[in-house]
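Re-run with default settings, no changes from the original entry. Doing this only to confirm the output is reproducible before filing.
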Amino acid sequence: MRVVRLSAGLFGAIWIGVLATAWVGAADQYASKPPSDVPTFTKDVAPILYKNCTTCHRPGEIAPMSLLTYEDARPWAKAIRDEVSERNMPPWHADAPHGTFLNERGITDEERETLVKWASRGAPKGKPEDLPPQPQYPDGWSMGKPDIILEMPEPYKVAADGVVAYEYVYIPTNFTEPKWVQAIEVRPGDRSVVHHVLVYYRAKPDLQRSPVLQPNKQLSQMPESPTGLLPRRKDLPPARLIATYAPGTNPEVLPPGTALRLEPGGIIELQMHYTTNGEAAVDRTKVGLILSRDPSPREIRPSHFFNGTLNLPAGAADVSVEADVEFLQDATVWGLFPHTHLRGKKWEYKLVLPDGTSKTVLSVPKYDFNWQTYYMFREPLQVPKGAKLVSTAWYDNSPKNKANPDPTVDVKWGDQTWEEMQYTGILFSPGQAPATTTSGKQQ
């Protein structure tokens, strides 16, 4: 069985078939001299697209079309109108007040009205002199030019069909001193066959770290997947997850004043999950690092917790699965990364304090497999020792779920897309964050 994954982007792959008919034959009665109350591309629309859309919607990026020029955007005017009207784009799935998250994707109501009005009134181009300069993006990197680039030693050939077991690829860093990393970006060589990448760091000094998180041992027993994992090296120190790539993910950019610490002598381990799509491909994934310029950044540690015992009965439309992690020390939580496969439909996270009181800290009511997001809190969570973070994911294993690979089978934990996961990435720091002033500076 082969799962067809929709392309991430402003309209997804479903709009590829619309291109031939989307407004191609529409009259351009407003193109030269639009009425004064009709927005134009050069004056009104381009600034919105440049600010919110072209990070993904440009040549070589994950979106299926570019929106950098009028000629690029004009055939998609009707789709732009529909997608922004229905609030499908920009893609953001957390239910929280505006400004809750640092990496929030969204446009204002005024910007949304401008795009809809432009598309509905002939999508005029406007005056060339009104067009702002196009944003300048580093070649091949969304986060900016990396200080360090680590690349798979050899290209990997992906067959046209069949199941590809997870591959482990090892890249020596040759670091002779600790590196403080402020941003990480994973760049697949061929996005069409790379389902996800987990980036681990393996170095001896990591063994000295005192534990902060204790996942629920009864739930975190991972069963063997029928498709299996290829063996990983056993001659290296334990692996520490430092970055993730999945459909729709953005580069991992940490808050100012924080960084990941990578000890000297470490090795990058890439867990590569390839998915065949009917055509043979070649991938050579890269990992880019931007180093912190802060003289003494606060360390952020990545980790995860999950429920490997999940069981989704055939045909069940609403199955909830929980996992939890206990804090062995006071800690600051910077971000959470919910992950399921095609049957996942929503998530909720509650922080349960030692006295038993609880509050919801993240709600994702319309989880979208095509947009995997690390939700970075603008005000990080201050978690006391003894508290628990409880995650709940809901699944739809019924025929009503159009993305469901097979609603007639019970589904358990598994690595491949037609199986399922209940997995959460978490970014945290030991101890409580220092108090800050309104300017954002530490007191």
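The chain has a mean pLDDT of 86. The two ends are 57 Å apart (CA to CA).
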